Amino acid sequence: MLLAHAVGHDRAWLNAHSGEELKEVWWIHYGRYLHQRLQGQPTQQIIGVQEFYGRDFRVTPDVLIPRPETEHVIEAALPLGARNILDIGTGSGAIAITLALETGARLVGTDVSFAALRIAAENAQRLGAKVDWVACDLAGGLCGRFDLVVSNPPYVPARDKSTLQREVRDYEPEIALYGGDDGLEIYRRLIPEAERLLAPRGWLVMEIGYALREAVRDMLGAWKEVEIRNDLAGLPRVILAQRR
């Protein structure tokens, strides 16, 4: 991937031209990218792109790199048939943009980071998605009613910071990673916000850390149809709940 990025072609081109000599400028770029990678910088940040749900999203150190596991949020949301959707903590915009393109619904994406919203807006424009972006803490700047609220909130316990991979700990934005000392700080605030904004019988779909399953479920005790779904590794990944 780094070599393909250095020469300005995809991997198929590299395979088709495997006998070709590398130009000096390619070597220079490739060497720089290898140095960055050896320092621990994620490949996605070096090449500036991460695929999510079949589309390429621009990523920078200002946003969390979209993970394949987060596609389970999309898969849980699509069958709900929502027409007004709110994505809280949108980051690169991967969830909001994907749902906008897959459903044609009205989408609003929020983030407390202006830098993240700039990346999200760039991704939306490039991919042809219509999303309204709002800078605010969680959904504090919004009112009205939504059929669906989705979120991939920060849920890594801050006390576990030293156990994270260097690529994550040193290069991804802390504001998008850590959910307080126990990982639950954002859920405690996000769930009441979703309840305030959801229409009756509207849905909340959130990604969860595998160790937080029971704690988050307990926070949704007054909701109905609470369901936890596992990812492909068999770990709890997404929680769904319907507003009474």
Describe this structure in words.
- The protein is of the alpha/beta class and 244 residues long.
- The chain has two domains: 2-39, no CATH class; 61-242, Vaccinia Virus protein VP39 (Rossmann fold, 3-Layer(aba) Sandwich).
- The chain is 36% helix and 22% strand.
- It contains ten helices and nine strands.
- It has helices spanning 2-7, 11-16, 24-38, 43-47, 71-77, 94-103, 114-127, 166-169, 185-197, 213-219; strands at 49-52, 55-58, 84-88, 106-111, 131-135, 146-151, 198-207, 224-230, 236-242.
- The strands form two sheets. Strands 5-4-3-6-7-9-8 form a seven-stranded mixed sheet, with helices on both faces. Strands 1-2 form a two-stranded antiparallel ribbon.
- A hairpin with a 5-residue loop joins strand 8 (224-230) and strand 9 (236-242).
- It is globular, with a radius of gyration of 19 Å.
- The model has no long low-confidence stretch (mean pLDDT 96).
C-alpha Rg (nearest Å): 19 Å
How many structural domains are formed by the residues?
2
Q: Name the structural class.
A: alpha/beta
Give the CATH H-level superfamily of the largest domain. Answer: Vaccinia Virus protein VP39
Name the CATH class of the largest domain: Alpha Beta
Query: Which range does the strand content fall in?
Result: 15-25%
Mean pLDDT: 96
How are strands sequenced across the largest beta sheet? 5-4-3-6-7-9-8
